[in-house]
Design brief:
Length: 29
C-alpha cells in the first residue's frame, strides 16, 4: 500500500515536472 502510494505520488510529481519543463521550452523556445 505504501509502495503503491509512493509510486503514484512520484509519478505524479514527474508528470508535473515534465509539464513545467515543456512549458519552459514553449515560453523560451
Amino acid at each position: 500500500m505504501v509502495s503503491t502510494n509512493g509510486t503514484y505520488v512520484n509519478s505524479r510529481r514527474i508528470e508535473a515536472e515534465t509539464k513545467l519543463l515543456h512549458g519552459d521550452v514553449i515560453r523560451f523556445g
